[in-house]
Amino acid sequence: MSNGICYLVGAGPGDPGLLTLRGRDCLAQAEVVVYDYLSNPALLLHAPDSAERIYVGKKAGAHTLSQEGINALLVEKTAAGRVVVRLKGGDPFIFGRGGEEAEALAQAGLRFEIVPGISSAIAGPAYAGIPVTHRGDNTTLTIFTGHEDPTKTESRLDYDAIARAPGTKVMLMGVERLDAITASLQAAGMPPATPVALVRWATTGRQQTLTGTLADIAARVAAAGFKAPAVAVFGDVVTRREALNWFESRPLFGRRIAVTRTRQQAGALLTRLRDLGADAFELPTIRIEPSPKKREFYQLVSDAHEYDWLVFTSPNGVDAFFEVFYTLFKDARSIGGVRIAAIGPATAERVRSFRFEVDLQPEKYVAEEIVKTFQRETTVDNLKILLARAEGAREVLATELTRLGAIVDEAIAYRTVPETEDVAGGIARFRAEGADMITFTSSSTAENFATLQLPLPAGLEIASIGPVTSKTVRALGLEVDIEAKTHDIPGLVAAIERHYTRHA
């Protein structure tokens, strides 16, 4: 038997936070990821960079690969001894054709595992404030699909049984056939006044909800131009939405915000924006690479115990320094009596994560402030200072500390280079749809965004993390609409929330 294995993983309904822990673990070891149209591309970031990524998306009228072709692909890759993750929107076995894929693998004598996912049949209504069951309304739930096998000569849906069934009915797919489906349900005896809701792109920042009755929902969908993918809910539970609409009432709901950071760092900002309801997506413009002066950097790290001060200007510098430090030394005490300074709370927190305390931290998060703090709290005359920074960073810190009499050595800990891959699809999405706002968290993110030469949509607003970044943005010929008062991620998010609250 082949050593390969195929994990049929439910990707959930769209919100990347709803992927199960088991699904994330499977992606982390994937050698091949086969993903579909309803799998959030952000989930691909859980897979190793080396993993082969194959898109087999299927939507109405546009199939990248037939189901038979997908089955054959999974068998081929698994039989070759690869660790394959088949990433499927929602749950693999709830109208996801995962059963057919599992059967193909079983018939080929190959190993596979089913990893259930959260179905949009439950999550979609929940994110629209609609409980599919409620003791005051119903005790049963019926789930059916409005999209049947197109080779069938007639519908196998038993509309009489669906109409007679008590409780809530949830329909997956079938928006394009809603007129015929609602007519059939009425003909089968379902009351025309039955409350109905359709939830499009459920659980994401693009979510839209449309409500009506069985009698008029098809006309409302046509008038609104409401398209798939959507889940439909039929029943009295729909009336609970007015009181329970938690997701769409958040302050940044529906705001499309492009986040320009490295792929490794975008997560914190994306999470905070999404928690406020934003349709935030990653648009990576830079990638962190190891120091181009590796031998020199290793030597300076090994000599860190000889310095009076070690100064970090970013979390990336902290990570790069301690990765090398713990390669060279097994005992943290090898760092000696060097004191540590850090610019910004994120940098300080990263230092503490390695179990070191920060001895000096300026109130404002720019290089000039750390010089002022040194002047105010101590003297640096004849002190040896090791500055761990990025290649091409501003020289102001080294220059000013040297002017004050310090002996400064600069350790190039890492460098930023333009991101050339669009793993999560953010660049393609920005090109196709634009955004309401774009965020810049450093000068390098702004500079490398400019090199992408993407068309800027009308009305695009720009949010900057601080004055240094804003200066770079303006030098590129762009206007800054928002500048964080506190120059870190929480400060930037707070500034964005204030901006949209003020304009609400």
CATH topology (level 3) name of the largest domain: Methyltransferase, Cobalt-precorrin-4 Transmethylase, Domain 2
Distance between the termini: 61 Å
CATH superfamily of the largest domain: Tetrapyrrole methylase, C-terminal domain
Shape: elongated
Query: Radius of gyration from the CA trace?
Result: 27 Å
Helix content range of the residues, please?
25-40%
Task: Name some characteristics of this structure.
18 helices, alpha/beta, 4 domains, Cobalt-precorrin-4 Transmethylase, domain 1, Methyltransferase, Cobalt-precorrin-4 Transmethylase, Domain 2, 504 residues
What's this, in brief?
Helix content is 34%, strand content 21%. The protein is α/β, with parallel strands linked by helices and 504 residues long.
How is the secondary structure organized here?
Blueprint: E1 5-10, H1 21-28, E2 32-35, E3 52-55, E4 58-59, E5 62-63, H2 67-79, E6 83-88, H3 98-107, E7 111-115, H4 120-127, E8 141-145, H5 159-164, E9 168-172, H6 178-187, E10 195-200, E11 208-213, H7 217-224, E12 230-234, H8 241-244, E13 256-260, H9 266-275, E14 279-282, E15 286-290, H10 294-302, E16 309-312, H11 315-328, E17 339-342, H12 345-353, H13 367-377, E18 384-390, H14 396-403, E19 407-418, H15 426-433, E20 437-440, H16 443-452, E21 461-464, H17 467-475, E22 482-483, H18 489-503
Parallel strand pairs: 1-6, 1-7, 2-3, 2-6, 8-9, 13-14, 13-20, 16-17, 16-18, 18-19, 20-21, 21-22
Antiparallel strand pairs: 4-5, 9-12, 10-11, 10-12, 15-19
Helix pairs in contact: 2-3, 11-12, 13-14, 16-17
